[in-house]
Specification:
The chain is of the alpha+beta class. It has a single domain, classed as Creatine Amidinohydrolase (Alpha-Beta Complex). The protein is built from four helices and 15 strands. The chain has helices spanning 13-36, 43-56, 124-142, 150-163, and strands at 60-61, 73-77, 80-82, 97-106, 109-118, 167-168, 174-176, 183-187, 204-207, 210-212, 218-220, 227-229, 235-237, 240-245, 248-251. The strands form four sheets. A five-stranded antiparallel sheet has the order 8-7-9-14-15. Strands 1, 2, 4 and 5 form a four-stranded antiparallel sheet that branches. Strand 11 (218-220) and strand 12 form a beta hairpin. It is globular. It starts with 12 loop residues before the first helix and ends in a 7-residue tail after the last strand. The protein binds magnesium ion (MG). Residues 112, 175, 206, 208, 239 line the site of magnesium ion (MG).
Length: 258
């Protein structure tokens, strides 16, 4: 990558409106998937639902073919952290959790968000993992304001998760988003030693804590995609695309039932 690839692009209000639209399609798809994440449903079925919803709303599924990814949806069950490949043989069971990560491309701009949903009844410890990961995302978003640094987001996420005895994944991080799915800056879910960029009006950030019930270490399976926890304990993942505005963080991918 050349030096220019490291520049954080600032979006105009018109571009942010397009990104809002792209992200609302993501939010609508995730809402549909949440309702369909039931016992006996395959992750392949969820992938097809997401892709159909996306195309019905005149958008392109952003992950399909991205670096060769073979599906529209990343569906990651239980110990799978992110980048799970949907499959007809991957059937959801009572007590599972599934991370649903979806992206769209609409009129040249990307949307990206994720939720982790329970299938039927799940143990209390895993319910807490989901709640803490989601609240860590919201605490990180609250720091996404002009004048703060990326590290303020990272710190808010890390402190909250570790206070509850969970670990944040280091090897995968959030990212800027815009006319490319992944843009600078990186948004780690832990505080790094080096200084991180200041947040400016017009930045759009995909903030995505990946939080493990056990240790922080992860591995990539032989399919070259699926990331799993090294100790095979469950992992949760929530993501929003957020614009930095004069009025504070604007959650582009927040679901509105309009
Ligand atoms: Mg993302």
């Amino acid at each position: 990558m050349g030096a220019n690839d490291q520049v954080i692009t600032l979006k105009t209000p018109v571009e942010i409106e397009l990104m809002h639209h792209a992200n609302q399609i993501v939010a609508g798809a995730l809402h549909l998937l949440r309702e369909n994440s039931k016992e006996g449903v395959s992750t392949y079925t969820l992938d097809k639902l997401a892709e159909e919803y996306c195309r019905d709303h005149n958008a392109i599924p952003a992950f399909k073919g991205y670096n060769g990814f073979p599906a529209s949806l990343c569906a990651s069950v239980n110990e799978e952290v992110v980048h799970g490949i949907p499959s007809k043989s991957k059937i959801l069971h009572d007590g599972d959790i599934v991370s649903l990560d979806f992206g769209t491309l609409f009129q040249g701009f990307y949307g990206d968000a994720a939720i982790t949903v329970p299938v039927g009844e799940i143990p209390e410890s895993i319910r807490e993992l989901l709640e803490v990961t989601k609240s860590a995302l919201m605490l990180g978003i609250a720091q996404a304001k002009i004048g703060n640094r990326i590290s303020d987001i990272s710190k808010a996420v890390q402190v909250h998760c570790e206070a509850h005895g969970f670990s944040v994944v280091r090897q995968f991080v959030g990212h800027g988003i815009g006319s490319r799915l992944h843009e600078p800056p990186e948004i780690p879910n832990y505080v790094q030693r080096q200084a991180s960029p200041r947040l400016l009006e017009g930045m759009v950030l995909a903030i995505e804590p990946m939080v493990n019930l056990g240790g922080a270490k992860v591995k990539i399976l032989r399919d070259q995609w699926t990331v799993v926890t090294a100790d095979r304990k469950p992992s949760a993942h929530f993501e929003h695309s957020v614009a930095i505005t004069q009025n504070g963080p604007f959650i582009l991918s927040e679901y509105t039932s309009a």
